[in-house]
Amino acid sequence: MIGVVAHPARRGTRQVVERIRATSSSVATTSAEVVVTYTTPAHPGGEQATRLLDAGAQRLIVVGGDGTVAQCAHALTEWIDEHQPAEPPRLTPIPVGTANLFWRNLVATFPPGPVCVDVAHVTLEPNGLTTTSLVAVGAGNSVRAIQRTPAQRHWWSYIATGVNLGTWKGSPWTQEVGNVAGVPHRLRIFDTSLDSGTLCHTSFAPTGVADWVVAGAWALGANVSPAAVRVRVGQSFDLDAPHGIHVDGEVYTKVQRARVRVRPRALPVLIPA
């Protein structure tokens, strides 16, 4: 069985689902039943993925953005930990989100076919909720930018909103723990990749406009050393988040702290040709 979890509000979702149904025999080694489920605001993907896996899905196709894919990835890794299958199901993301950073880094790092990639296991405190990040966990003004950016905008809308927040200073202005090499157009943010076995913590603490200019040049690849940017690589990091946190673009407001640790090669993925 092929299980599909789709975000119904994303542009292009209906056409993608119809295409999957029509070509089900070509997305598996043999013709297979396709079972489609849709996310809701109350159930953003994880529960749907678990039900499909319990029903016998050997392929999990996720039609959505980074947040939906991360919810399903968390369900899949938890299911694998519990059941320890000899041949674990594999996840295939179909990008119809705003930024699709996981997909962009996935296809930039690996050729089509099966691969196992790193994920970040996230524990949110004080409630103890656990989830999975495929791209980045952040605190500070990045959370505010996500909250103020309407859905369905382009990825650069987040940056534009952040710059227009009206506060040019911060200690730190934002901090992010990343699991990927970068963001669109090769902007330099993290010193890691989906198969490095490490995470990267990048913090930005500007004291004025000049720090923004130098940091922007650094992100674009200039050979400069911005004093306001600090980059550390490791296997786990703690983030203080008195004003909330985001996990792959999904905002959690009732959070004071996040513990983020890498799980190397924990997510089986099948990249379509």
Automatic annotation (TrEMBL):
This is DAGKc domain-containing protein. It holds the Pfam family DAGK_cat. SUPFAM superfamilies: NAD kinase/diacylglycerol kinase-like (SSF111331). PROSITE patterns: DAGK. One of its GO terms (molecular function) is kinase activity. The lineage of its organism: Bacteria, Bacillati, Actinomycetota, Actinomycetes, Micrococcales. It comes from the Bacteria. Residues 1-106 form the DAGKc domain.
